[in-house]
Amino acid sequence: MKRTVISMAALAACACAFNAHAQKFDGLADTPQMGWNSWNTFACDINEQLIKDTADAMVKNGLKDAGYQYVNIDDCWHGKRDETGVIHPDKERFPSGMKALADYVHSKGLKIGIYSDVGATTCGGRPGSRGYEYQDARTYASWGIDYIKYDWCDSKGLSSVGAYTTMRDAIRAAGRPMLFSICEWGDTKPWEWAKDVGHSWRTTGDIHMCFDCEFSEASYSRWGVLQILDKQAGLRVHAGPGHWNDMDMLEVGRGFTEDEDRTHFAAWSMLASPLILGNDVRKMSEATKRILTNKAVIGINQDKLGIQAWRFLQSGQLEYWAKPLANDEWAVMILNRSDEVKPVTYQWSTSRINDDANKRVLDTTKTVFNWTDAWTGKTGDTSKKLESKLAPHGAIVLRLKARS
Fold it and tell me: Could you give the percent of the chain with pLDDT greater than 90?
């Protein structure tokens, strides 16, 4: 016991000395991270074979080639801590252990993520990392983990800044670059304090499998696609390379209409949110695959400037969003929030769109821009009025480049 006390005291002293210089690992999220997470479809019903099969499918279905690189295990992988406090995976669900599973995922050219929580217990009632942050980070590093999603359950009495900074410092001390995804639900405005703590932070409570709704429980709400989109107002100034506003995992391929899936994917891409898939990628329809591997839309999300889109115009149930891109290009999304088909008429020649926050202007009153529809490949230019029809909950996404 005495030896343990001395050991823990020494560890604490080392941690305090390290904290003065600790920082997150750079270069892990220069563009929004892309990958898959187990929670939306499988919740606690996970095991190592599912993770292996998912990694295989991501390679086979073209997701890896499209840019998705993380295979993330969410809650409920945990077994128990041993007598020294080391966490172990559930032996029945992960009989080969996490190191072997990480090696398998890495052998496919992918990276692996894991989940923990600031509290003593996770949202699913498994062991959290409170009081074990440095030990858990070292364990994850020894397994070869590349990504940590860190949740906010059982957090009563905790400081979010303190809890997340502690785990950031623990990750740094463990020595392995691991992307740090803050899942604090936007409760304490992490966009105001987390830039130097994590690589992304959730801006809202959990997404719900609906396009336009709020699902309320006793003390908690889950949100539809449009509700999460609305809650991003004013947050774009806090996002950029290495620090992203996270709008939660995608529900594409889980029951929306094809138009809603395209809009959902386009909105997350326009707003530079991490693209973390939540569907069963082993059983994707061709339509879902086409959406999730669309190079033009992914390119908008992964643009190196890392500027988040904003809504510059609302006309009834139609919304117009703009996003500056590298090389003086732009992306424009027109969204139909209604349940009915809506005609679109937009006169480019009288439009001047100002991004005051980033000192950029899309001036189609003086310059003609060629545009390409990211979904259909159709082309046109801004010398002519844009006229189209939008399906219910549909979205047009155009990429604009000045005519040379």
Answer: 92
Q: Does domain 22-301 have CATH number 3.20.20.70?
A: yes
Q: Are the C-beta atoms of 249 and 35 separated by less than 8 Å?
A: no
Structure confidence by residue, pLDDT tens digits, 25-63: 999 999 999 999 999 999 999 999 999 999 999 999 999
pTM of the model: 0.94
Three-state SS for 301?
helix
Residues contacting residue 351 through CB under 8 Å, at least 6 positions apart? 362, 364, 365
Where along the chain do its domains lie? 22-301, 310-402
Residue 168, classed as helix, strand or coil, is helix
280 belongs to the catalytic site? no
Q: Which CATH class is domain 310-402?
A: mainly beta
Catalytic option among 74, 117, 146, 151: 151
| 151 counts as catalytic | yes
Task: Write down the catalytic residue from 74, 75, 206, 261.
Answer: 206
According to DSSP, the β-strands at 200-202 and 179-182 are: parallel
CA distances, 60 to each of 55, 67, 108, 244 (Å): 9, 13, 10, 29
